[in-house]
Structure formats: C-alpha cells, structure tokens
Design goal:
This protein has six helices and seven strands. It is of the alpha/beta class and 247 residues long. It has one domain: Rossmann fold. Helix 5 links the parallel strand 6 and strand 7.
Amino acid sequence: MSPANTASRFSARGAVALVAGANRGISKVFARELIDRGAARVYGGARNPDMIDVPGVVPVRLDITDPAQVAAAADQLTDLTLLVNNVGICGTRPLLGTPSTQGAHDEMGTDFFGTLSMIRAFTPILGRNGDGAIINVLSILSFAQYAPWASYGASKGAAWALNNTARDELAPCGTHVTSVECAFVDSDITADIEFPTMAPEALVTMTLDALETGNPEMLADQLTRESTAMLSDYPCDRLPLRPRCLA
C-alpha cells in the first residue's frame, strides 16, 4: 500500500507528547519509550491520573469519551507536538447475535468517536506548533473482519477510515498521521487468546521507528501484512480537490 500524503520525518527527541491511556498496557510502554528517546516532555492521560507511574511522565486527567475532559486537556497542553491515540475497548461479540447493540455503541463511542474527539481537539495545536504528528494504534481487524469480534472490528474499521482521511486532511498543516496495525499483542485484550503474541515493547519500538522514517502506516506482523495485500491503493491522489489546513 502507498498512502497518498506522506509528511516529513518526525523525531521523538525533543517532542512534547500526550499518550492517552498511559496508566497501563501499550500506552504505558509508549510513554516510557518516548522518555527514553529524549522527548522534551511526555504527558500521560488517564481517567485516574494517580495510576500513572512512569518516571518523568506528567499525569493528566483524561477520559476520551468525555468532551469536557478532552477540551480541558487541549486547553492545558498547548505545547503539544505528538499525540498518541491508543485508548480502546474490545468485547468478543458479533454484531447480530447479541441481545442488544449497546456493546457496539460502547466500542464505537470509545474506539471511533473518542479518537475523533482527540484528533479534532489537538489538530489546531499541532498545526500551530508545526511539524506535528499523530499516532493511531489500530488493529488487523480494521480491515480483516471476523464475526466473533465483529463489533470491535467495525469500530476499528471506522477508526482506520478516520486515520486515512485525517492523514489527507492534515497534510497541508505539516502534521504527519501514522497508523499501527497488528494482530496479537500481549495486553489485557489478548490475555485469553491461544495464539503467539508480540511484546508491546517490540510494537512501540517499530512504531516510533516508522514515525521517524516518515512511514505513514506500520504493519507490525506477517499476518497483518498478508491481510493488507488484498486491499486497493489509496485513491485520494487522483481526486481534484485538496484539503486546507485546519489549524
């Protein structure tokens, strides 16, 4: 795949980053790795900021599904140059064989609308500060649908579409948008899965390396790479209208 708008390379050294969900899992590893790579400042967002225990990370109260908290964080973090979106919920449920659609609403509310709220809130800040970047951690289920995890796949599919259009829409601002797709990473979500999992440290290292080389999409494993081989190329280069900077 060859996404249309690749921006300049982005270095973690000297960056001012916000990592959503930095109290645990992959996000916690992101916060730690950014500190190790020489970020000037790393903010860690969590519903309970007291749970953030990575040395050097500045805790921020943040529930990405709460518009007031997202807005408050954006008002506070005006020096931001890097946004890491890795907050999501996952239920093992189909779309049709459930007693209600509430689970799907919950997943879409966090995985898509929560991520959308974060990008909308921080896009003007990244644009004003210049040469900013956004990392969206997605899933192989963004494009390889699987019925037992159908509602999660639908939410990640929506987030994948959001990522790709945000990349195009923010290119005039000089804001680099990169996505991370992976199959099974050692986390709370995969705790009961009987498949080999990737260490979160490996995923984060690969992602930050991809960001620093200007790669707009990081496919973390062979299964994910094989799954994308059937997808068509991005069409937006062939469209006559180009977006304007939103900053």
